[in-house]
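Supplementary Note 2. Why include the ligand at all?

Several targets in our set were suspected to adopt different conformations when bound, so apo predictions alone were not considered sufficient. For every target with a known small-molecule partner we therefore ran a joint prediction. The input for glutamine is given below.
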Amino acid sequence: MEELFRLSGSELLRRIRSREISSQEATRACLRRMKAVEGRVRAFRCILEEEALATAEAIDGAFSRGEDPGSLAGLPVALKDVLCLAGHPTTCGSRVLEKFIPPYDATVIRRLKEAGAVILGKTNMDEFAMGSSTENSAFEKTRNPWDLDRVPGGSSGGSAAAVAADMAPVSLGTDTGGSIRQPAAFCGVPGLKTTYGRVSRFGLVAFASSLDQIGPFGKTVEDLARTLSVIAGYDPRDSTSARVPVPDYASQLSAPLRSIRLGVPKEYFPAGLDSQIEGAVRAMLTRAEAMGARVEELSLPHTDFSIPTYYILATAEASSNLARYDGVRYGYRAEGAHVLGEMYRRSRSEGFGREVKRRIMLGTYVLSSGYYDAYYLKAQKVRTLLKADFDAAFEKVDLIVTPTTPSTAFRFGEKTEDPLQMYLSDIFTATINLVGIPALSLPCGIARDGLPIGAQIVGPAFSEPRLLGVAAALESEMDFRSHHRPKALDA
Ligand code: GLN
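The joint prediction is reproduced in token form.
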């Protein structure tokens, strides 16, 4: 029998809509797959089996009455545990929010529900989305489905692993400095970080508000496109969401590559870059050229400053956003404190993990009087220069192609003792968030150790249609999915 859990989200949608299969069959296939592999992968913080089956049944009922229950009708999806889902714990991977049950749905979740999606569960993540390996979760250790001794990437490691392990065809993650694209690359699935303002963040627990964006993971680029059309768009509840019309992304995927100009920034292929990663990305560019694209080298001269700039601004914003977890209004409260100051102090020191505390201290420092101008203000100025680099580049090219990550998935514990090493895994992704533009990670090859390699495709603000179109063309040319899949779970 054909294994339904292996199908892409778009293929499942077609079969459910044509009533070749039911949503209940699709949902059960995912739940069965979870029973078989989740014990080894640990991608989920919680699984909502009963609710998922009830939704699927309702969707099947609507189809049998001849109604149209929405563009994602019957599709099982998984959600990063940083997105508020009414009535269920939303932990953000933190002890601080272990018992927090939001009374409302994030806008993206409301839109998914209205489009008929079936919510399978919430996925594991680095605490408050700070990290690149999901090792900073206060809860379980999520493993990479390609090699269970390796990390899935982070911070949206659970969402990437859930899709890679065929437990969900589509999931949502968030990306502040690379947290969708880096785990997508490590887990061999496509993932999209959207333009700042493209997707409402109402109900997303904030990490760094000038950088955070929500976006999809899927089995195919078409999965990303279909999901994005549902979650994108202006929301009166999020003043940073943009009033830019939302196209039907999936209907625009067949644009030819002919005459597309692809820029290759030399700073993203530094001396010493892993030769297999460089080789895989360049091989993809060669194929793009054969398909009619024009490839040209260019320079983004301020690239070296992006990691320091990101880690000043992201920590500054985090220290301010996380001030709300004081044990008073919600979240973890230490027992037995007698005065308010002690209660604050103990709640925060018992509730937060090491990396979150490190960020709060760094962020408080760069914002403190006497240091503000030297760090925070200067970083804001460098951010403007980074944006100018990209503005200039997009005068000459339509899209930019780089590796997504400097290495393939690393081993557990390999970078936990040295935060700087961990921070450097964002070297190719964080700048994109500083500039506010969209970027997609596409699987483009396999290293000798059997681990996937991702290529990052970057476009100007709101260029998602072109980004998705070019990615879809390259995807069908390379056909990564039919050649490679994680075998660690076959036993
Ligand atoms: N790894 C980066 C960090 O730790 C990015 C995280 C993210 O995008 N949420 O800040």
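Residues 9 and 433 are 27 Å apart (CA to CA). The chain has a mean pLDDT of 97. Comparable summaries for the other entries are listed in the accompanying table.
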